[in-house]
C-alpha cells in the first residue's frame, strides 16, 4: 500500500488560518493518528487529503501520485484519489440494504454486476457482516453501522483509508470492543490508515504513531509510548493523559540531577538532568507519584502535603494533594484518609519545560558559589 506525504500544507480563511505548515508522512501500512482538541485542524487536514477541502498551499502525494500541489495547480478530485473515507456520522443510506450500501461506490465506478456481488461479499466477510447483507441501517446497532461504512470504504480497493472519528457515536463499552476489532482489521488488510480523534485512549490503543495537533500546528510526532512518556511541551503532557505541571525555579545540578525550588511551597524536588535554567514547569504523571505516611522523612526526594480529596474510579483512587498551595493529582491503588502525607517520585520520571526563558543549567556548586 502507498504512503501518504503531506508537505507544508496550509489553509487560510478570511480571518483565520485553519492549518499552517503541516508536514508529515503516513508510512506504508501504518496506522497514523491525528490527535487534538476540537478546532485544532485535524479533520481539515484529513479532508484535504480526501479532496473534500481545498488547501491554500502545500502538497499531498499518495505514493507516486500527486493529489494536490498548489504551486503546480494540481487538485485531483475526490473520486480520483483512491481514498476510502469513513465519516463520523457513517453517512450510510437509510433506504438501502447493507449490501446495496457497500455496493454503491462500485456502481458509481460502473463495475460489472458479477464483480460487484463478489466484492460486496468479500468486504462484508472482512467486517463480519455477511449474514446481515439484506438488513437495513435501522435494523443494525451502532457498531454494525460503523462496520458497514468501513466495508463500503474498502470494497473498491482504496490505496489509503481515512477515518474521521468513526467510533465517537458508540457507547463506552462498545467503543472499547470496536477499538480492538478495528486494529485487528487494519493490521490484517495492511491498509495505510490515517485516523482522526480527540480521544487520547483511542490514540494510544490504536496507533503505530500519533501526531498531536494544536491550533493548526503539529506539536509532536511519535509512538504512543514516546509522546506519553516524553512529551515535547506542556500542551502535549496535559492533553495526552493527566499531568501535574508545577511552577518552579532551577537551583542548579548535582549528581546528575536538577534541583528545582517550587514557587508556591518553597519545597525542593530533584528531576532527571536537563538543559534548562531559570523558571520552569516540572511535569510528573499522577501514577508516578507515591504516597507514604512518614511525615518526618524530610529530604529533596519527598514533598510534604495534605490530602485534600479522594475519588474512587474503579481501578484506583484519585487524590488531590495540597503542597503549600500547589495542587497535585495522585493515582494510587491504596486507600488513604485525609490528613498530612508525604509524596515522592523517581527523578527520571519527571520532565522539565521552560516556563519563561531557559538557558544552560549551572551546576549546583556554581549556583551556591554566587549566593
Detailed description of the structure:
It is built from nine helices and 21 strands. The strands form four sheets. A six-stranded mixed β-sheet has the order 7-8-9-3-10-11, with helices on both faces. It has 371 residues and is α+β, with helices and mostly antiparallel strands. It folds into two domains: 234 residues, Rossmann fold, CATH 3.40.50.300; 128 residues, RNA polymerase II/Efflux pump adaptor protein, barrel-sandwich hybrid domain (OB fold (Dihydrolipoamide Acetyltransferase, E2P), Beta Barrel). The C terminus is likely disordered. 24% of the residues lie in helices and 35% in strands. Strand 18 and strand 19 form a beta hairpin. Helix 2 runs parallel beside helix 4 and helix 3 packs across helix 4.
